[in-house]
Every structure is written in structure tokens, then in C-alpha cells.
Amino acid sequence: SQTMSSDVGAALDVHLRWQTRLLETDPGSARFLLLRPGDRYTVCNAKKAEYDVRGGCWRHRKRSSEDWQLNHTETWDDWLLREASGRLRHKSGPRLTRPTAGLGNVMLSLVSAALMALVSRRVLLVEGWTVAQGSFGHPLSDLLLETSPWRSHVERAQASGRATNWFLAHDDRSGFDKICSDDLRHLPSATVLRVYSNQYFAPLLLLNPHVVQQVRQLAQQPVLPPDRFPRRAACSSAPSAPESEVCSAEAGGIWGPTLRHLFQPQHQLSKRVRSFIREHVLGG
How confident is the model at residue 144, as a pLDDT? Predict the structure, then answer.
């Protein structure tokens, strides 16, 4: 069994270790929360978007998506790209792709998805963001679907129609009612819940009567007021102290601890960040 900690960072650590044990002991029982960072309707000319995102991407919205709704074994991304490609005038038209969300939007949606995975007890994975491998290490690198040992399990569930999609994006909020009202420990019944989002939807969980107490408990990490623990003064007066004890001591709640737990920079990037802070923030 999995016990919910009162500290969101500790709870997330327990949850991710539980995911690892589940893969080794009983992967067939897993239920997945698969975050697909991004919006719903945007498609891009893959070549043009490399140097002109605004000019190379556009909103492609069909009047009805009934064809996709009837084909439960095809992801929304695949259906949208195929449908958009079919509308091109020339067969040799541009190769289409779905855009990669920016780092800020990924952070917003991933922190939210992590909280949702905790309260729903689903295995947390991230789809379509392999670019993170170049900058971030454990635990985020372990959550990338494309390189995860969980991938085959997700694909089997998808192929057998045991997957559903929720849209919590700025251009489609159709999943808002569900996240505010469903008993997330039991609904949806699908093995794979794929969430499309590019925003911070975590506060919606406070409106859900089934999980609100858990969310409040996780958010009750004490936060020191700024006049008692000014961040800049603490960091500059004790530069030799561990960063986790000094520079991050004032952060609490859900956002800060979850963000710091998931987004651990790789060694070389971490060195460059510390060097930049010493030179430009702490004055050398």
C-alpha cells in the first residue's frame, strides 16, 4: 500500500519509488496518467517551424471529431495530424508535426499532473518532451514515455482501447468539469488517462470534493514570511551552505517543492547555473 505524506516533496518521492516497484512486481495492475504538454488544435510545418514558430504553426480545427471518438485506438495527436495532412492540396505538402510546449508551460502542466497522479494513484509519465533529456536528470528523465520501460504497457493499453483523453488546455477546457468532480481514484476507468495541458490546472483539484483534503494536506508545508527569511540576504550571507537549506528554505506549498523535486538539472547545466548566479546575482 502507498501512504500519503503530509509533505508534497516527500509524497512525490514515495510515489515515484512506488512506480518503480510496481514495474518490477505487478505492472499489469498499473493505471497511467500520461501528460502530453501542449494545446489541442495546433499543428506545424515541421521544417518551417524550426526557424519561425509563429509562421510555421496554425490552429487546425475540424468542425467535428466524431471520427476520432469512434476510433479509440488512435491518439488525438495521430488523428489530428492525419486529418490535417489529408486537407493539404498537394501530396508533396509539408510534413506536419505537433508543437513542443515551452519550458514554462511544461513546468506548469507537469507540476499539476504530478499532484493529480498523487491523489489518483496513477503512474506518472510525460509524452512528447524528449528534449528534456539534454538538460534534466533523475527523476524527470525516468518519466519520459519514449525511453521508459513502461512504454510497452502504455502501448498495449492504447491498442486495446483502454485509453482516454482529457483536455485541460487554453484552447479546450472540456476536461475541467471532470477534474473538479470525478472521484479520481476510480474515474476514469481507462487504464491510460492522457492529459493535454499547457497550463497550471492544480488549483482545480481544490474544487474536487473527493481529493480536496489530500491536496490541502500536501500544501500545508510551513512557509517563512519574507521579513523573517529574505531569500537574497540568506543566499549571499551563507554562500557555502547547501542550497536546499538556504536558498530554497522560504518556498513551500505545492508549486516550489514539486518543481524542485522534478526538475533536477544535469551536472554540466547545474555548474553553468551556479556560475551565472555567483556572477550576476550574488555579485561575484
Answer: 97
**pLDDT at residue 249 in the model:** 41
Q: Is 34 helix (H, G, I), strand (E, B) or coil?
A: strand
Cell of 167: 483536455
Residue 96 pairs in a beta bridge with 45
pLDDT at residue 70, rounded to an integer = 57
The DSSP 8-state label assigned to residue 281 in this structure reads: I
Question: Is beta strand 163-168 parallel, antiparallel or unpaired with respect to 192-197?
Answer: parallel
- For β-strands 32-37 and 123-126, DSSP reports them as parallel
Residue entry with cell 519561425: 52
CA–CA distance, 280 with 88 (Å, rounded to integer): 50
Tell the residue number behind the cell numbers 519574507, with chain if given. Answer: 226
* C-alpha angle 260-110-72 in degrees, rounded to nearest 5: 155
DSSP 3-state of 159: helix
Residue-wise pLDDT for 121-145, tens only, equals 999 999 999 989 888 999 999 999 9
Cα separation of the two ends of the chain: 49
- Strands 42-45 and 96-97, sheet pairing: antiparallel
pLDDT averaged over every residue in the chain? 84
Looking at residues 23-32, what average pLDDT do you find?
A: 97
Closest CA to 211 of 4, 35, 67: 4
Q: What is the pTM of this model?
A: 0.82
